[in-house]
Specification:
The protein has 19 helices and two strands. By secondary structure, it is mainly alpha-helical. It has one domain. A hairpin with a 5-residue loop joins strand 1 and strand 2.
Length: about 425
Protein backbone atom coordinates (compact mmCIF):
# COMPACT_ATOMS: atom_id res chain seq x y z
CA UNK A 1 0.00 0.00 0.00
CA UNK A 2 2.81 2.40 0.93
CA UNK A 3 4.72 1.82 -2.32
CA UNK A 4 1.76 2.48 -4.61
CA UNK A 5 0.35 5.35 -2.53
CA UNK A 6 3.71 7.11 -2.44
CA UNK A 7 3.99 6.68 -6.19
CA UNK A 8 0.54 8.11 -6.90
CA UNK A 9 1.25 11.09 -4.62
CA UNK A 10 4.79 11.79 -5.92
CA UNK A 11 3.53 14.83 -7.81
CA UNK A 12 2.13 16.29 -4.57
CA UNK A 13 4.82 15.29 -2.06
CA UNK A 14 7.75 15.80 -4.43
CA UNK A 15 11.06 14.44 -3.14
CA UNK A 16 9.45 13.15 0.03
CA UNK A 17 7.14 10.97 -2.05
CA UNK A 18 10.11 9.65 -4.05
CA UNK A 19 12.01 8.83 -0.84
CA UNK A 20 9.02 6.97 0.61
CA UNK A 21 8.57 5.04 -2.65
CA UNK A 22 12.27 4.09 -2.73
CA UNK A 23 12.45 3.09 0.94
CA UNK A 24 9.28 0.99 0.74
CA UNK A 25 10.45 -0.58 -2.51
CA UNK A 26 13.89 -1.30 -1.07
CA UNK A 27 12.32 -2.97 1.96
CA UNK A 28 10.27 -5.14 -0.38
CA UNK A 29 13.38 -6.13 -2.34
CA UNK A 30 15.50 -6.91 0.72
CA UNK A 31 12.77 -8.86 2.44
CA UNK A 32 13.44 -11.80 0.10
CA UNK A 33 16.77 -11.30 -1.64
CA UNK A 34 16.76 -14.86 -2.97
CA UNK A 35 13.41 -14.25 -4.63
CA UNK A 36 14.63 -10.92 -5.99
CA UNK A 37 17.53 -12.67 -7.73
CA UNK A 38 15.17 -15.22 -9.29
CA UNK A 39 12.88 -12.43 -10.51
CA UNK A 40 15.82 -10.63 -12.09
CA UNK A 41 16.78 -13.74 -14.02
CA UNK A 42 13.18 -14.48 -14.96
CA UNK A 43 12.38 -11.02 -16.32
CA UNK A 44 15.82 -9.93 -17.51
CA UNK A 45 14.53 -8.74 -20.87
CA UNK A 46 12.26 -6.16 -19.24
CA UNK A 47 15.39 -4.30 -18.14
CA UNK A 48 16.81 -3.90 -21.64
CA UNK A 49 15.12 -0.50 -21.98
CA UNK A 50 16.57 1.11 -18.83
CA UNK A 51 19.91 -0.55 -19.58
CA UNK A 52 19.91 1.06 -23.04
CA UNK A 53 19.08 4.41 -21.45
CA UNK A 54 22.09 4.05 -19.16
CA UNK A 55 24.37 2.93 -22.00
CA UNK A 56 23.40 6.06 -23.95
CA UNK A 57 25.72 8.03 -21.66
CA UNK A 58 28.52 6.86 -23.97
CA UNK A 59 27.32 9.21 -26.75
CA UNK A 60 25.09 11.55 -24.78
CA UNK A 61 25.68 15.30 -24.81
CA UNK A 62 24.94 15.16 -21.07
CA UNK A 63 26.22 11.77 -19.85
CA UNK A 64 25.65 12.60 -16.19
CA UNK A 65 21.93 13.17 -16.83
CA UNK A 66 21.62 10.01 -18.93
CA UNK A 67 23.29 7.94 -16.20
CA UNK A 68 21.26 9.51 -13.39
CA UNK A 69 17.85 9.25 -15.01
CA UNK A 70 18.59 5.86 -16.55
CA UNK A 71 19.53 4.46 -13.14
CA UNK A 72 16.36 5.85 -11.59
CA UNK A 73 14.33 4.28 -14.40
CA UNK A 74 15.99 0.91 -13.76
CA UNK A 75 15.13 1.14 -10.06
CA UNK A 76 11.52 1.95 -10.92
CA UNK A 77 11.40 -1.08 -13.23
CA UNK A 78 12.88 -3.28 -10.50
CA UNK A 79 10.30 -2.21 -7.92
CA UNK A 80 7.43 -2.58 -10.41
CA UNK A 81 8.45 -6.13 -11.36
CA UNK A 82 8.87 -7.02 -7.69
CA UNK A 83 5.40 -5.71 -6.84
CA UNK A 84 3.85 -7.75 -9.64
CA UNK A 85 5.50 -10.91 -8.34
CA UNK A 86 4.94 -10.44 -4.60
CA UNK A 87 1.28 -9.40 -4.86
CA UNK A 88 -1.55 -11.31 -6.49
CA UNK A 89 -3.17 -9.45 -9.40
CA UNK A 90 -6.35 -8.78 -7.45
CA UNK A 91 -4.47 -7.50 -4.40
CA UNK A 92 -2.45 -5.16 -6.61
CA UNK A 93 -5.63 -3.90 -8.29
CA UNK A 94 -7.40 -3.24 -4.99
CA UNK A 95 -4.42 -1.46 -3.45
CA UNK A 96 -3.99 0.64 -6.58
CA UNK A 97 -7.71 1.45 -6.54
CA UNK A 98 -7.47 2.63 -2.93
CA UNK A 99 -4.45 4.82 -3.70
CA UNK A 100 -6.15 6.38 -6.72
CA UNK A 101 -9.32 7.05 -4.73
CA UNK A 102 -7.25 8.88 -2.11
CA UNK A 103 -5.68 10.96 -4.89
CA UNK A 104 -9.11 11.70 -6.33
CA UNK A 105 -10.54 12.79 -2.97
CA UNK A 106 -7.45 14.89 -2.22
CA UNK A 107 -7.74 16.56 -5.64
CA UNK A 108 -11.31 17.58 -4.85
CA UNK A 109 -10.57 18.79 -1.32
CA UNK A 110 -7.18 20.48 -1.64
CA UNK A 111 -6.62 20.71 -5.39
CA UNK A 112 -5.48 23.85 -7.15
CA UNK A 113 -6.24 25.75 -10.34
CA UNK A 114 -3.61 26.50 -12.97
CA UNK A 115 -2.95 30.08 -14.07
CA UNK A 116 -5.19 29.61 -17.11
CA UNK A 117 -8.10 28.43 -14.96
CA UNK A 118 -7.75 24.66 -15.54
CA UNK A 119 -8.24 22.49 -12.46
CA UNK A 120 -5.19 20.26 -11.89
CA UNK A 121 -6.04 18.75 -8.50
CA UNK A 122 -2.96 17.86 -6.44
CA UNK A 123 -0.82 17.34 -9.54
CA UNK A 124 1.73 19.49 -11.32
CA UNK A 125 0.18 19.24 -14.79
CA UNK A 126 -3.25 18.75 -16.25
CA UNK A 127 -2.10 15.77 -18.28
CA UNK A 128 -0.77 13.87 -15.27
CA UNK A 129 -3.98 14.73 -13.42
CA UNK A 130 -6.03 13.41 -16.34
CA UNK A 131 -3.95 10.22 -16.66
CA UNK A 132 -4.35 9.49 -12.94
CA UNK A 133 -8.09 10.04 -12.96
CA UNK A 134 -8.50 7.88 -16.07
CA UNK A 135 -6.53 5.17 -14.26
CA UNK A 136 -9.03 5.48 -11.41
CA UNK A 137 -11.92 5.09 -13.87
CA UNK A 138 -10.31 1.99 -15.41
CA UNK A 139 -9.69 0.43 -11.98
CA UNK A 140 -13.25 1.21 -10.96
CA UNK A 141 -14.73 -0.22 -14.14
CA UNK A 142 -12.71 -3.43 -13.79
CA UNK A 143 -13.94 -3.99 -10.23
CA UNK A 144 -17.55 -3.05 -10.96
CA UNK A 145 -17.77 -5.19 -14.11
CA UNK A 146 -16.46 -8.40 -12.49
CA UNK A 147 -19.49 -10.33 -11.25
CA UNK A 148 -17.24 -12.55 -9.16
CA UNK A 149 -16.25 -9.60 -6.96
CA UNK A 150 -18.00 -9.13 -3.60
CA UNK A 151 -20.84 -6.62 -3.60
CA UNK A 152 -18.89 -4.06 -1.56
CA UNK A 153 -16.01 -4.02 -4.04
CA UNK A 154 -18.36 -3.68 -6.99
CA UNK A 155 -20.15 -0.83 -5.24
CA UNK A 156 -16.79 0.78 -4.48
CA UNK A 157 -15.99 0.50 -8.18
CA UNK A 158 -19.15 2.41 -9.08
CA UNK A 159 -18.33 5.14 -6.55
CA UNK A 160 -14.75 5.30 -7.81
CA UNK A 161 -16.00 5.82 -11.35
CA UNK A 162 -18.28 8.63 -10.17
CA UNK A 163 -15.25 10.23 -8.51
CA UNK A 164 -12.89 9.81 -11.46
CA UNK A 165 -15.10 10.55 -14.46
CA UNK A 166 -15.84 14.24 -13.80
CA UNK A 167 -12.23 14.91 -12.82
CA UNK A 168 -10.98 13.31 -16.04
CA UNK A 169 -13.11 15.84 -17.88
CA UNK A 170 -12.10 18.74 -15.62
CA UNK A 171 -8.43 18.21 -16.50
CA UNK A 172 -9.27 19.20 -20.11
CA UNK A 173 -6.98 16.61 -21.69
CA UNK A 174 -8.80 15.70 -24.90
CA UNK A 175 -6.35 12.93 -25.74
CA UNK A 176 -6.80 11.18 -22.40
CA UNK A 177 -10.60 11.43 -22.54
CA UNK A 178 -10.86 10.13 -26.12
CA UNK A 179 -8.42 7.28 -25.39
CA UNK A 180 -10.41 6.33 -22.28
CA UNK A 181 -13.68 6.27 -24.23
CA UNK A 182 -12.21 3.98 -26.88
CA UNK A 183 -10.68 1.65 -24.27
CA UNK A 184 -13.89 1.38 -22.27
CA UNK A 185 -15.83 0.62 -25.46
CA UNK A 186 -13.33 -2.12 -26.36
CA UNK A 187 -13.59 -3.53 -22.83
CA UNK A 188 -17.38 -3.68 -23.10
CA UNK A 189 -17.07 -5.58 -26.38
CA UNK A 190 -14.67 -8.04 -24.78
CA UNK A 191 -16.95 -8.59 -21.82
CA UNK A 192 -19.89 -9.04 -24.16
CA UNK A 193 -18.15 -11.91 -25.93
CA UNK A 194 -18.14 -13.97 -22.73
CA UNK A 195 -21.79 -14.89 -23.29
CA UNK A 196 -20.69 -16.71 -26.46
CA UNK A 197 -19.02 -20.12 -26.79
CA UNK A 198 -15.21 -19.91 -27.18
CA UNK A 199 -15.24 -20.51 -30.96
CA UNK A 200 -17.91 -17.90 -31.61
CA UNK A 201 -16.16 -15.59 -29.15
CA UNK A 202 -13.04 -15.49 -31.30
CA UNK A 203 -15.19 -14.93 -34.40
CA UNK A 204 -16.86 -11.97 -32.70
CA UNK A 205 -13.48 -10.50 -31.80
CA UNK A 206 -12.25 -10.95 -35.36
CA UNK A 207 -15.34 -9.13 -36.63
CA UNK A 208 -14.76 -6.36 -34.10
CA UNK A 209 -11.11 -6.03 -35.16
CA UNK A 210 -12.20 -5.97 -38.80
CA UNK A 211 -14.70 -3.22 -38.07
CA UNK A 212 -12.04 -1.28 -36.15
CA UNK A 213 -9.64 -1.62 -39.08
CA UNK A 214 -12.34 -0.44 -41.49
CA UNK A 215 -12.99 2.58 -39.27
CA UNK A 216 -9.27 3.30 -39.15
CA UNK A 217 -8.98 3.22 -42.94
CA UNK A 218 -12.08 5.38 -43.26
CA UNK A 219 -10.56 7.78 -40.74
CA UNK A 220 -7.40 8.05 -42.79
CA UNK A 221 -9.45 8.75 -45.93
CA UNK A 222 -11.57 11.42 -44.23
CA UNK A 223 -8.77 12.69 -41.98
CA UNK A 224 -9.19 16.33 -42.98
CA UNK A 225 -12.88 16.36 -42.09
CA UNK A 226 -12.22 14.48 -38.86
CA UNK A 227 -9.43 16.89 -37.91
CA UNK A 228 -11.77 19.82 -38.53
CA UNK A 229 -14.39 18.19 -36.28
CA UNK A 230 -11.85 17.53 -33.52
CA UNK A 231 -10.67 21.12 -33.72
CA UNK A 232 -14.25 22.37 -33.46
CA UNK A 233 -15.21 20.09 -30.55
CA UNK A 234 -12.03 20.43 -28.48
CA UNK A 235 -11.29 24.06 -29.26
CA UNK A 236 -7.74 23.23 -30.33
CA UNK A 237 -6.08 24.73 -33.38
CA UNK A 238 -5.40 22.84 -36.60
CA UNK A 239 -1.91 21.93 -35.41
CA UNK A 240 -3.41 20.16 -32.35
CA UNK A 241 -1.97 22.80 -30.00
CA UNK A 242 1.32 22.83 -31.85
CA UNK A 243 1.82 19.08 -31.89
CA UNK A 244 2.28 18.81 -35.65
CA UNK A 245 4.95 21.52 -35.51
CA UNK A 246 6.73 19.64 -32.74
CA UNK A 247 6.57 16.40 -34.71
CA UNK A 248 8.28 18.03 -37.70
CA UNK A 249 11.04 19.33 -35.43
CA UNK A 250 11.42 15.87 -33.89
CA UNK A 251 11.72 14.22 -37.31
CA UNK A 252 14.50 16.62 -38.27
CA UNK A 253 16.31 15.88 -35.01
CA UNK A 254 15.90 12.11 -35.43
CA UNK A 255 17.54 12.32 -38.86
CA UNK A 256 20.75 13.51 -37.18
CA UNK A 257 21.19 10.30 -35.15
CA UNK A 258 18.44 7.85 -36.10
CA UNK A 259 19.72 4.71 -34.36
CA UNK A 260 21.21 6.07 -31.14
CA UNK A 261 19.55 9.42 -30.52
CA UNK A 262 21.04 12.33 -28.59
CA UNK A 263 21.24 10.43 -25.30
CA UNK A 264 18.63 9.67 -22.65
CA UNK A 265 17.22 12.93 -21.25
CA UNK A 266 19.90 14.87 -23.13
CA UNK A 267 17.67 16.96 -25.41
CA UNK A 268 15.43 19.00 -23.12
CA UNK A 269 18.36 20.61 -21.31
CA UNK A 270 19.07 24.27 -20.69
CA UNK A 271 21.74 25.43 -23.10
CA UNK A 272 20.55 23.27 -25.99
CA UNK A 273 19.76 25.93 -28.64
CA UNK A 274 16.92 23.97 -30.25
CA UNK A 275 15.27 23.15 -26.92
CA UNK A 276 15.62 26.78 -25.82
CA UNK A 277 13.94 27.96 -29.03
CA UNK A 278 11.05 25.50 -28.59
CA UNK A 279 10.52 26.67 -25.01
CA UNK A 280 10.35 30.25 -26.26
CA UNK A 281 7.98 29.41 -29.13
CA UNK A 282 5.61 27.46 -26.86
CA UNK A 283 5.81 29.84 -23.88
CA UNK A 284 7.41 27.42 -21.41
CA UNK A 285 9.26 29.76 -19.01
CA UNK A 286 9.93 26.94 -16.52
CA UNK A 287 11.92 25.03 -19.18
CA UNK A 288 10.64 21.73 -17.80
CA UNK A 289 7.80 19.24 -18.20
CA UNK A 290 7.78 19.43 -22.00
CA UNK A 291 8.15 16.83 -24.74
CA UNK A 292 7.34 16.13 -28.39
CA UNK A 293 3.85 14.82 -27.56
CA UNK A 294 4.40 11.48 -29.24
CA UNK A 295 5.94 8.52 -27.44
CA UNK A 296 7.82 7.20 -30.45
CA UNK A 297 9.16 10.48 -31.78
CA UNK A 298 10.20 11.67 -28.32
CA UNK A 299 12.10 8.49 -27.59
CA UNK A 300 13.62 8.35 -31.07
CA UNK A 301 15.10 11.78 -30.38
CA UNK A 302 16.51 10.67 -27.01
CA UNK A 303 17.49 7.01 -27.47
CA UNK A 304 17.06 6.42 -31.19
CA UNK A 305 15.10 3.84 -33.13
CA UNK A 306 16.72 1.12 -31.04
CA UNK A 307 15.14 2.67 -27.96
CA UNK A 308 11.76 2.86 -29.70
CA UNK A 309 12.04 -0.83 -30.57
CA UNK A 310 12.72 -1.62 -26.90
CA UNK A 311 9.56 0.30 -25.96
CA UNK A 312 7.56 -1.84 -28.38
CA UNK A 313 9.16 -5.00 -26.97
CA UNK A 314 7.39 -4.12 -23.72
CA UNK A 315 4.12 -2.66 -24.99
CA UNK A 316 3.16 -5.06 -27.79
CA UNK A 317 3.52 -8.31 -25.78
CA UNK A 318 1.69 -6.64 -22.90
CA UNK A 319 -1.29 -5.84 -25.15
CA UNK A 320 -1.37 -9.26 -26.85
CA UNK A 321 -1.08 -11.25 -23.62
CA UNK A 322 -3.52 -9.05 -21.70
CA UNK A 323 -6.05 -9.30 -24.55
CA UNK A 324 -5.81 -13.09 -24.55
CA UNK A 325 -6.12 -13.15 -20.77
CA UNK A 326 -9.25 -11.00 -20.66
CA UNK A 327 -10.88 -12.94 -23.51
CA UNK A 328 -10.46 -16.27 -21.75
CA UNK A 329 -10.79 -15.22 -18.11
CA UNK A 330 -12.65 -11.90 -17.98
CA UNK A 331 -11.68 -11.22 -14.36
CA UNK A 332 -11.13 -7.75 -12.93
CA UNK A 333 -7.30 -7.89 -12.97
CA UNK A 334 -7.28 -9.15 -16.57
CA UNK A 335 -9.68 -6.42 -17.62
CA UNK A 336 -7.64 -3.71 -15.93
CA UNK A 337 -4.36 -4.93 -17.42
CA UNK A 338 -5.87 -4.87 -20.90
CA UNK A 339 -7.37 -1.40 -20.44
CA UNK A 340 -4.21 0.09 -18.91
CA UNK A 341 -1.98 -1.08 -21.77
CA UNK A 342 -4.52 -0.18 -24.47
CA UNK A 343 -4.97 3.29 -22.95
CA UNK A 344 -1.22 3.92 -23.00
CA UNK A 345 -0.85 2.69 -26.59
CA UNK A 346 -3.64 4.93 -27.86
CA UNK A 347 -2.42 7.90 -25.86
CA UNK A 348 1.14 7.35 -27.07
CA UNK A 349 0.19 8.85 -30.44
CA UNK A 350 -0.31 12.32 -28.93
CA UNK A 351 1.43 12.14 -25.53
CA UNK A 352 4.41 10.50 -23.79
CA UNK A 353 2.68 8.54 -20.99
CA UNK A 354 5.48 6.01 -20.23
CA UNK A 355 8.27 5.04 -19.35
CA UNK A 356 9.55 7.40 -16.65
CA UNK A 357 11.14 7.00 -13.25
CA UNK A 358 8.81 7.22 -10.25
CA UNK A 359 5.77 7.30 -12.52
CA UNK A 360 2.51 5.57 -11.59
CA UNK A 361 1.40 4.82 -15.15
CA UNK A 362 4.79 3.25 -15.88
CA UNK A 363 4.44 0.91 -12.91
CA UNK A 364 0.87 0.02 -13.94
CA UNK A 365 1.93 -0.97 -17.46
CA UNK A 366 4.92 -2.99 -16.25
CA UNK A 367 2.73 -4.74 -13.69
CA UNK A 368 0.18 -5.47 -16.43
CA UNK A 369 2.91 -7.06 -18.54
CA UNK A 370 4.23 -9.21 -15.68
CA UNK A 371 0.74 -10.31 -14.62
CA UNK A 372 -0.16 -11.17 -18.21
CA UNK A 373 3.04 -13.21 -18.52
CA UNK A 374 2.23 -14.99 -15.28
CA UNK A 375 -1.32 -15.67 -16.43
CA UNK A 376 -0.06 -17.19 -19.67
CA UNK A 377 2.03 -19.63 -17.63
CA UNK A 378 -0.03 -20.29 -14.54
CA UNK A 379 -3.74 -20.22 -15.39
CA UNK A 380 -4.67 -23.66 -16.82
CA UNK A 381 -6.90 -22.43 -19.67
CA UNK A 382 -4.18 -20.01 -20.80
CA UNK A 383 -1.04 -22.10 -20.41
CA UNK A 384 0.05 -24.59 -23.09
CA UNK A 385 -0.89 -28.19 -22.12
CA UNK A 386 2.73 -29.38 -22.00
CA UNK A 387 3.69 -26.59 -19.63
CA UNK A 388 0.73 -27.33 -17.33
CA UNK A 389 1.67 -31.00 -17.18
CA UNK A 390 5.26 -30.14 -16.29
CA UNK A 391 4.14 -27.73 -13.58
CA UNK A 392 1.49 -29.89 -11.90
CA UNK A 393 3.76 -32.19 -9.84
CA UNK A 394 5.30 -29.36 -7.83
CA UNK A 395 2.83 -26.45 -8.02
CA UNK A 396 -0.69 -25.81 -6.93
CA UNK A 397 -1.97 -23.01 -9.13
CA UNK A 398 -5.64 -22.18 -8.76
CA UNK A 399 -7.96 -19.38 -9.74
CA UNK A 400 -8.28 -18.59 -6.03
CA UNK A 401 -4.60 -17.70 -5.97
CA UNK A 402 -5.15 -15.26 -8.80
CA UNK A 403 -7.98 -13.65 -6.86
CA UNK A 404 -6.02 -12.74 -3.77
CA UNK A 405 -3.31 -15.01 -2.46
CA UNK A 406 0.38 -14.18 -2.56
CA UNK A 407 2.66 -15.75 -5.11
CA UNK A 408 6.34 -16.64 -5.12
CA UNK A 409 8.08 -16.70 -8.46
CA UNK A 410 10.95 -18.59 -6.88
CA UNK A 411 8.92 -21.81 -6.96
CA UNK A 412 8.61 -21.80 -10.74
CA UNK A 413 11.02 -21.86 -13.62
CA UNK A 414 10.25 -19.03 -16.04
CA UNK A 415 11.46 -19.04 -19.65
Amino acid sequence: MIVLSALVFVSYFGRNGVVIFLLAGLALLLRRTDQTRVELRAYWWLYLLPLWCIISLLWSAHPNLSLWHGTQLAITFLIAVTLANRLSPLTFLRILFGSLVLAGVASVLIGTVRDDGIWIGIFESKNYYAFTMVALVLCSFALAADRAQPFLWRAAGVLGALLGLPQSWMAESAGAVLAAIFVLAAALVMLGTHVLPPKRRMLAIMLFCGAALALLLAGLYFRDAILALVVEVTGKDASLTGRTDLWLIALDEIARAPLLGTGYRAFWVEGNPLAEQIWIDFYIPSKSGFNFHNLYLSNAVDIGLIGVALHLVLLVPALVLATRWVLLAGEAPALFCFMAVAFVLILSLVEVPVFFEFNALTVMVLAALVYSLRAAREIPQLAPPARIQMAEPSHNTTSAHWRGQAHSVSTRRIF
